[in-house]
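Re: beginner question about structure tokens

> Can someone show what the tokenized structure looks like for a real chain? I only ever see the sequence side.

Sure, here's an example I had lying around. Input first:
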Amino acid sequence: MTITPQRLHLGTAWYPEHWPETRWTEDIRLMKAAGISVARAGEFAWSSFEPSEGEFRLDWLARAVDLLTQNGIRAVLGTPTAAPPAWLTARYPETLAVDEHGHRREHGRRCHYCVNSPDYNARVGSIVEALAARFGKHPNVIGWQIDNEFGTVCYCDTCRAGFQRFLAEKFGSLDALNEHWATAYWSQSYTAWEQIPLPKKGHNPGLLLAFREFVTRSYRNFQRRQIDILRPHLREGVWITHNFMNWWQAFDHYALSEDLDLASWDWYLPSGHHNYLESGAMHDLVRGFKQRNFWVMETQPGSVNWAGINNTLNQGEAQALAWHAVGHGADALLYWQWRPALNGQEQYHGSLVDQSGQPRPFYDEAARLGAAFEKVSDLLTGSSVVAQIAIIHDYASRWSLDEQRHHKDFDYIRHLLAYYKPLAKRNLPVDILSPDAPLDPEKYKLVIVPALAILTPMRARRLREYAENGGTLLLTIRTGVKDAYNALQPERPPGALAKLAGVEVEEYYALKEKIPLHGTSAVQFTGTAKIWAERLRTLDEDGYGTQIIAEFKDAGGFGWLDGFPAATTRPIGDGMVYYFGGYFDERPQAKLIGFICESLGLEAPLDTPDGVELCQRVTPEGEKIYILINHQARQKKFPIPWTVRDHISGYAGKGQVVLPPYGTVVLTILKSV
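And the corresponding structure tokens:
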């Protein structure tokens, strides 16, 4: 479904069921005064919607939505399936999930259901049908959120039987399963599907990967059932989403996003303060789920309640966070929550008004943001982020490496961020894509593929075609080690990409100590590698033309890497392939990434001082919008070469930009003032 953007939204999560109806009018008055243009409701209200089985009470929500409508505030409704009512879990106890230790969860939490329970799915169907029939055509309901923050993994007997059926469908025969999983090892061979367990830590790698695939399919089926109920009731243009949790690893988010109209996510900073060089990757990840703009469906109004230290963001910092999200493609940002419930697990969480119903200090900051959103809404509506760089993020490779890190400090996401952060420092837009996304060298000058451990023939072919047709491909450590079943490839890494890269890995090393390296004549630097390094053999003797651009040197007593390539490059067709054979520290990493970007002419249109981010959005007509954000608590001044208009302040002129602490400008270039 194509979504037609309506405006840039500032919103909140509202729970009218927590408060007397006489209070609602004042809540909405305060929302409107703060520039709130959208409110999400209903996602935890199942017991209020259906106090006993089959008894639906939806009139109160209709009155709440009507009040929003009368005040010009759009509504997003959530299906309430993350929090089943007590009558359901008492009558159908098998709907509660079981953890990996065999303990069944208890009522009183959220997301504690079994996603595969037939009884749960039947009750889910009833409540979703009732809500869809009542509100699907409501002119003020612009979207629906399925459930809330998927994440629980269940280990009950229903899930075990479902997993066994999934494996029978996937492999076709036990002989095939036993072969792919090499079950002769430790006498793991299976002679009946019913023998196959649900995995615990340390199980067969093939079983562990297949289980993650099963969890993905289970959640996708659960979500799909709700979508299929909702869709026939919805008026044209009403979208369906789910609010994901950034790097959450339980399932493949790209797969679930295929069935959604809009990607959205919940963005929280547990403790400390904002690091925009890393958080931008989370926005770019979610934008990559659908390869278009997204919503931040929840974010904190100052603080959370579940971290070790629930500090409040600095004054103004949340505004910088909001513009950062917009700069990376967010079309809406909703604060969670409007007002805290008087009891319950999140009563200390930040909110816009307090338990007494009075605005908290943060309310005024949100109101300033709402006023600024209103000023730039028309300008930004319909615009999007246009990136010439893509980073491939693969859930299967991540699952594989998470289970077999081989070094306690090797983390797939930290490794990916080691490639993202130098690009963010250069203010270069990045798309974070599935390994199955199209890779057009006309669109992407550079594609970075961090630790693609799981390499299938199709993936290898697509990467080769991208490079041969003019793209620049950067491969990294731990690539091409496994096949689709999490079995070792019967050849040296990077497997089917070795000839493409012009190198093969003779050996790998989990590093206890850092290893020095230096650049060659093409790029000059000195630095170190940490955590992981590979001993590369170039394939020059076969005419591959591999060039060494960095070497390990003076490796002390270790010795195994001294004089061997650390990074290489090789031309192929109309493109180029780089291979990084170490987990490099920040300085050499930045130097090498900078070398590649400069060789491709990838540069931001403006230099910014440390702590100032330049984001770009482009209108359908091709006009560029520059969002400059100060992420630090001190003023920043710097020159700009253009005559511009700031659409927040109204200023028009040239010379320099002055950004107060956590300040933002939204600029377009003027031909004349």
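Each token stands for a local structural state, so reading them left to right follows the chain. The domain at 389-599 is CATH 3.40.50.880 (Rossmann fold).
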